[in-house]
Design brief:
With 326 residues, the chain is of the alpha/beta class. The protein has one domain: UDP-N-acetylmuramoyl-L-alanine:D-glutamate ligase (3-Layer(aba) Sandwich). Helices cover 35% and strands 28% of the residues. The protein has ten helices and 13 strands. Strands 5-4-1-8-9-10-11-12-13 form a nine-stranded mixed β-sheet, sandwiched between helices. The chain has a four-stranded mixed β-sheet with strand order 3-2-6-7. α2 crosses α8 and α4 runs parallel beside α5. The longest helix is centred in the C-terminal third of the chain and has 15 residues. The two termini are 15 Å apart.
């Protein structure tokens, strides 16, 4: 058995809890045959439609390809989209016992209209509703029982209101008490501060915004990008994670450690077809590798390889073990 096969076998035994903003991704597939007489826009004749778990649910979907022990925790509305999302997750064998259905909230739906394999437009339906105090208490009670039973926790914050500072503090505290890995995919436009996480994974723009710095153009080689390194230094100081993994699109990943580690992993993507969901894939595989005892640098290599595969697909896709083997 190869080293990668052994690692994939180890992945299948890991138990991971994903917490965050759950969404439904809707794809309308069709073709353009003419321009509308009402406005200079294409008319798309829809031929089919498909639905996928999105947001934090897409992180769980990526994990489920590698381990059957995947649980998701979040909130959906008391609408048909919420029911549909829960059904999609359950059909994939993802544990939804931590999903709250809230009649006072609406499920976030992102609709992408695709014609000739090109996205024509995206339509978002969402209402950012803060998590009520009683709902947060329910979530924390569930969390207290769930965390000791898992190997790792991933938090995916999309800024839709499910996560609050008090909830974030409790997640990190409970994970620390249980000695569990906790990895964070932060949102740049919330005031939540993550303290003491195992790993935090912002993208380049999110890193600058969270560090309070103006975004700067990329510099190569990446390890000579002083503006980016300064943003990373500030985030290590502010958040105090063991590992800071910054995704850089076509420039790959930058891994910074609390021990002074600096490592650039160049992208291995052969073609970039669609970047949606690539960050979800990265944090899923990075965390799973850490949970399996893989050193952070090697875990980042695995995450980079997986992201390079998923950007070559259309839509919020996932990577399979067979694809990772190459």
């Amino acid at each position: 058995m190869s080293a990668l096969d052994s690692l994939l076998a180890a992945f299948s035994g890991k138990r991971v809890l994903v917490i965050g903003d759950l969404m439904l991704d809707e794809f309308l597939w069709g073709k353009v045959s003419r321009i509308s007489p009402e406005a200079p826009v294409p008319v798309v004749n829809v031929a089919s439609e498909s639905y996928y778990p999105g947001g934090a649910a897409n992180v769980a979907r990526n994990l489920r390809e590698f381990t059957p022990h995947t649980m998701v925790m979040g909130r959906v509305g008391g609408d048909r989209y919420g029911c549909q999302l829960i059904e999609l997750l359950a059909e994939r064998g993802i544990d939804t016992s931590g999903v709250q259905q809230d009649s006072t909230a609406s499920t976030t739906v992102k609709t992408r209209i695709i014609a000739r394999n090109q996205q024509v437009v995206r339509v978002d339906r969402e209402t950012k509703t803060p998590l009520a105090a009683d709902r947060e208490a329910e979530a924390i009670a569930f969390l207290e029982s769930a965390i000791p039973a898992v190997d790792a926790v991933i938090v995916a914050d999309y800024g839709k209101g499910y996560l609050t500072q008090s909830f974030a503090d409790r997640i990190c505290a409970l994970a620390a008490q249980s000695g569990r890995i906790v990895a964070i995919d932060p949102h740049p436009y919330t005031s939540i501060v993550w303290r003491g996480a195992t790993a935090i994974k912002p993208n380049r723009l999110e890193a600058f915004l969270a560090a309070g710095l103006p975004p700067a153009d990329p510099v190569t080689p990446v390890l000579e990008d002083e503006a980016l390194l300064e943003a990373g230094r500030r985030l290590l100081e502010r958040w105090n994670p063991r590992h800071l993994l910054i995704t850089l699109g076509e420039h790959g990943l930058l891994l910074l450690g609390s021990d002074g580690e600096r490592r650039h992993i160049p992208t291995c993507a052969k073609t970039v077809y669609d970047v949606s969901g690539a960050g979800d894939t990265a944090i899923a595989l990075f965390t799973l590798a850490l949970a399996a005892g893989v050193p952070a640098a090697e875990a980042a290599e695995i995450a980079n390889r997986a992201s390079g595969i998923v950007v070559g697909k259309l839509g919020t896709a996932v990577v399979t073990p067979a694809e990772l083997r190459g």
